[in-house]
């Protein structure tokens, strides 16, 4: 069933406007009488029926019961910004792989450092990519994309780490602990429910950053003998999380 994200589903009669309406009408070839799944910004879900098409507006009515989406485990991706537009690929694939929150970070060795109007434009585009990817893969929620901030500031925000959270970070100097081993230990333990995955920049984390991350509860993991690009590393770890838990 087709899926769309709306601001509010509380009303019985609904309007879909602008880009969302055009996407339904032209990309998805929706027609009057079609029933689709709609999800709102606070996690409500319902089936709606399309009743009228008029230029950039589609009218609809709710025909199914309003249900609350329940998320058992949250997956958070904290990623130091890569060069060029690779973060767009990371957002798209992370959305498809079930990430609930994406946090763009700037570390000591991060090269990409958008600011001002450029940062605002990037945030708008990133949110648009996440929304489109969520609709394409028919997931129940759009991942939240937080504002860009420094790695140190973010570490201070999450410290002390919630006892129900597993915090992984990929480190090229980790020789023994693999992602699979940590995930399977976590899977067989009781209590922990959420997972944070931290990915470094192209130049890796500095020694001081590694120490800070470990003090905050981060568990360093290896992705094998090869040094992966930051976008490949993010997708690889999230794929492993999906394999173990989805």
Q: On the 0-100 scale, what is the average pLDDT? A: 91
Number of distinct beta strands:
13
Question: What's the CATH first level of the largest domain?
Answer: Alpha Beta
Specify the biggest β-sheet.
Answer: 7 strands, parallel
Gross morphology: elongated
Task: Give the CA-CA distance, first to last residue.
Answer: 21 Å
Query: What share of residues is helical?
Result: 25-40%
Task: Look at the structure and name the CATH superfamily of the largest domain.
Answer: SPOUT methyltransferase, trefoil knot domain
Helices and strands, in order, run as: EEHEEEEEHEHEEHEHEHEH
How would you describe the oligomerization state of the chains in this entry? single chain
Number of helices: 7
SS strand fraction: 25-35%
CATH architectural name of the largest domain? 3-Layer(aba) Sandwich
Radius of gyration over all CA atoms, rounded: 20 Å
SSE class: alpha/beta
Query: Which runs of at least 5 residues are low in confidence (pLDDT < 50)?
Result: none
- Structural domain tally: 2
Query: Under CATH, the topology of the largest domain is which?
Result: Alpha/beta knot
């Amino acid at each position: 069933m087709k899926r769309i994200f709306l601001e509010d589903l509380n009303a019985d009669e609904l309007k879909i406007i602008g880009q969302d309406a055009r996407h339904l009408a032209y990309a998805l070839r929706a027609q009057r009488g079609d029933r689709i799944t709609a999800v709102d910004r606070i996690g409500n879900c319902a089936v709606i029926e399309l009743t009228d098409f008029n230029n950039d507006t589609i009218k609809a009515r709710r025909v199914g019961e309003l249900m609350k989406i329940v998320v058992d485990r949250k997956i958070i991706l904290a990623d130091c910004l890569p060069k060029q537009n690779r973060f767009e690929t990371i957002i798209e694939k992370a959305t498809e792989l079930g990430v609930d929150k994406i946090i763009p970070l700037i570390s000591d060795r991060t090269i990409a450092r958008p600011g001002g109007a450029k940062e605002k434009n990037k945030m708008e585009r990133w949110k648009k990519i996440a929304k489109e990817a969520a609709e394409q893969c028919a997931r129940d929620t759009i991942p939240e994309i937080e504002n860009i901030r420094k790695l140190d500031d973010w570490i201070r925000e999450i410290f002390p780490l919630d006892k129900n959270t597993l915090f992984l970070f990929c480190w090229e100097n980790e020789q023994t602990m693999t992602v699979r081993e940590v995930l399977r230990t976590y899977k067989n333990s009781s209590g922990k429910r959420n997972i944070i995955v931290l990915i470094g920049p192209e130049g890796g984390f500095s020694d001081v950053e590694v120490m800070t991350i470990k003090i905050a509860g981060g568990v360093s993991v290896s992705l094998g003998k090869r040094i992966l690009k930051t976008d490949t590393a993010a997708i690889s770890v999230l794929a492993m999380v999906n394999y173990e838990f989805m």
